[in-house]
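Lay summary

Proteins are chains of building blocks that fold into shapes. Our project writes down both the chain and a compact code for its shape. Here are two examples, one after the other.
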Amino acid sequence: MTGKSARLAGGRTSDEWRTLRETLIVGGDPLVWRKAIDAFLIERLETRYFIPIRLLRSHLGGRGEGFAIVALQCSVIEFLAALRKGWHHTRHVDDVGPPEYAYSDSGRLFVDFLVQVPPFKGLLTRRHGERFYSEVRCGLIHETMTKSDWRIRVRQKAVIDGVNKTVDRNRLQELLESYVSAYRREIEVTPALQAAFLRKFDVIAA
């Protein structure tokens, strides 16, 4: 549950979001948007996901941490996909947020993002993307395991190999961070992404 003083990104709170929100105008000053992205999106991703992933990589070194890392990465993929559209996940009619931007089919959102949005576009066919979602993402989240012989690796040629059923968790992390960097630049000058960002964070801060 979130509340008036809920932390959204590091030490930044929902009250701080509402204050900053008043300065954010779709199509407005790119510098103001950069401040918002850095303060809330980048800080949120770094403290909640990317720093923990780096710690897992540096402190465990091949003791099975790849399962936790890819589970975290799959959560980030879905979040970034929903953020790009300004959608919020819901299964309840009384959930916060505009109902026209609610989604419950995370699989389609997840796969569309992987097969359509650079730099992920071209990594997987739609069929392999669907298998990655059901056999890796859902397997990790629901069963703490990959399914159908998918393996988590490092130092392989492909980021995600749908034919050989492997994912390189280090290269996937590099791609996620590359996407976030590109998104940070893109949103400063793209009104549609700005409007979507406001919808998503309004729900997060509610």
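And here is the second example, written the same way.
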Amino acid sequence: MTETLTIAVPSKGRLMEETANFFKARGLNMQKIGHDRGYQGEIEGYDDIDIVYLSASEIAQQLKTGQVHMGVTGEDLVRENIIGADQRVEFLKKLGFGYADVVVAVPECWIDVHTMADLEEMAMEFRRHHSRRLRVATKYMNLTRQFFTNKAVAGYRIVESLGATEGTPIGGTADLIVDITSTGETLEANHLRILDDGVILRSEANLVASRAAEWGGGAAEIRLEVMSKLNHDPNDEEE
């Protein structure tokens, strides 16, 4: 039976810092064990909680397989990597940072394309004139397929993006993109714009629990204690 609760948190960058600050403000002080660049950690005063530092996408995969009990990662990564996410994990708490929208963006010069319906019309015209489907560059293949199906858009094929997705239309390897954006500045710099109904998901960092993990032993009880602290608003103490 599991006697400890394992929580996966981002291993680097702003997400790691904001996660640590969020927990610390609520009395849960995370710290690494051993080397500063190590991947193991703990919460001060809690011998029954293990912290593991992973990339945001790895956290989604570990939640999927139940190798960790809980994790902090973007909703976009959870829904991309876990088909039927609401049945396989539990979204416990939105954390108020890590905001990013998953969007459909087209070249600014496509002056007659403003909606997904316009995109499908263009795709049909494009295929008649060029004998191929529109190419959509993305790292979000599952979210793209689901969204395009829901919008009745079929005249496309996905080009998996391994680098800077927003540069693929200018580079000639794709015609449009599905990618994340927070300010829209990178899209604008690459002469792209979001379709009027092209927001697939408004994502932010979430605390997520795995339904596949072993919740026996003390894990379920520790979870209740952790959530009690994380649901407390430290701003209430200032009033």
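What can we say about the second shape? Residues 100-202 form a domain with the D-Maltodextrin-Binding Protein; domain 2 fold (CATH 3.40.190.10).
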